[in-house]
Each structure stands twice: as structure tokens, then as C-alpha cells.
Amino acid sequence: MSGPSSRRPAGLRAPDKLVFLLSLVPYLLEQRVVDVAEAAAHFGVGEQEIRDAVMLIATSGLPGATGTYQPNDLFDIDWDSFEEDDVIVIVHHVAIDDAPRLSAREAAALIAGLQYLSALPENAGRASLAALTEKLRAGASSAPSRLAVAEESADESLATVRRAVASGHRLDFDYLNARGERRRRRVDPLRIASLGADWYLQAYDHLREDVRNFRVDRMSDLEVTDEPIGDHSGRAIPETLFQASPDDLEVVVDVAPATLPLLGDYLADSTQAEAGDRLRVTLRLSHVHGLKRLVAGLPGLVTVVAPDVARAAVADWAEAGLAGYSDAPGDPDPRVTEA
What we know:
339 residues; Arc Repressor Mutant, subunit A; SH3 type barrels; 9 helices; CBASS_pafABC_assoc_protein; Proteasome accessory factor C; PafC-like
């Protein structure tokens, strides 16, 4: 037997039923008049389940100032339409208009994010982003502030990288790696990914003859060539930037317990030991240079214990910072294996 009633087993668990009811009420209010069969098809449930939910809604409401339920404190439906024609019409509702709304500041922050997404080449002309922006403006508690999203220094390079990926042509550029070494590279661009605030290009590197990650803000003098990329359909391209490797460096650190969830991607295993008021754990990193960024992101909360090369790298970086050295590009994310 097929149909809505066969798509979901009878008897929802209490949490599922609550989510279902919270979704059903706004749907019914938006539709105004809807057949039971249509509502069942929309939610993928049986028609009797819709009827039972409507009956429950009709006994729900918000008690008045006396703490008791008066007629206007409950939902009400058109019972004749419901019982005779199997049609749902809510003629009185309560509490829905008192639902929390986004503040002007919250709406402005979300709209700024949508403006940034709208500016990306792959989102050009997408009506859904514009529609969502207008909904945020209309749904805020007051008029959101007008914000402008400033372009980052890497935006021009990112646009060139996107063009190379979209056109399927090889890309030449100068690359400054985490060790401060600059070299001209030729790659077959495959995919663009972001990690935090950083953008990376995953590409087949003709120098290394393998897939490598390149941080966009470390790329300069980019040139999209006329030469099409090779066939990489049979090559395994990692879905994530961070890939564990036998060559990874294991670093022992003492961390404040509250920071442990932030280090989940770095943990080599689940082993923990108490070190005073801190926990001693082992992190897995692609290279020691990226450790500086991790420590800087959690100031005073991470102490490098071993190996000595890791302690020295962090100490030298800190001393250079104190000396006012600030011209080098930012360090890479320690989870990402760069070329």
C-alpha cells in the first residue's frame, strides 16, 4: 500500500511531535485554507496524523491574566469545514504574533553576510539571496543599519582563481609557502574551499605531481593560461582540506579544559592527562609553522610542551612579534597540508 500514511510509521516520539506541531501551525496560517490530504502530502505523514494534530491545536492556547483559559485564549478552527469537508481553516490563533524577532543589529549582520555571498561569481543573479535579504529587513524588530562589506586584499586573487576553475584552464602563479620560500607554480585548478576566514585552492601541482592545497592570500602574479587542465577524473580529490598523513607532526600541549572542543580537528587521539589545572593532549599538525597560528588564536590557553622544534618555532615567532616584525603574510592553518 502506498500513500502518505505509508511513508512514516504511526506514533511520533514526543520531541518529533513537538517539532511537527511547531511547523504545522505556521504552515496552516500561511495557507489559510488547506485540505487535510494536501497538508499530509506536504509533511509526508498520514491524513489521520494531520487530523489528530489539528484536534490537539484546537485545545492549545495561552492562559489569560487569571491563569485560566477563556474562549479567546485558545486556537479555534472552522469545525464545519473540518468535519464535513476535511478542510482546515484556523479562524483564531494566539501567541504566534508574540514570537521573538531579530534585532536590528542581528538582521544587519545577516544582511551583510548575504551581500558578501551575492558578490561571489557563482551566486551572481540568484534571486533567492535577494528575497531572503528582503525578508530579513521586513522581519527585524526595527530597520537594520545599512552596512557595506569591504573587499579583502585576497578578493582579486580569489576572482582569478575562480575564473580558472570555472574555465578549466591551467593557472600560473608565484607562491610563498609557510617556510618563506617563493616559487613559480603551474597547477590544474580543481576546487576552491574555505577554512575559517581563509580561502584555499585545491589543485594538481605539476611540480609535485600530486594534489596540493594553496592558500589564496599567499598567491601572487596570477595568470590564467590558454592551456586546458588535464583529465583528473580518476584521481582521488580529498573532500576536506585536512587529511591525516604519516608525515604529520605530533605536538604535545597543555591546554585549558574549556578550549578542548576547539581543538577537536587537531587531536591525534582521545588520550588526556591532567597537568595541574590543564589537560595534556597530543595534536596532529601538517607542519610546525602552522602551530604559531593555533597558539596565537588561543592566547594564554595553550602551552607547547614538546617536541623542542615546535617550542622553538613558537618562541622565535613570539620574539619576532615583540620586535615589531609584521611584514610577513599570516601563517597557514595548521590542519592544512600546503604545497
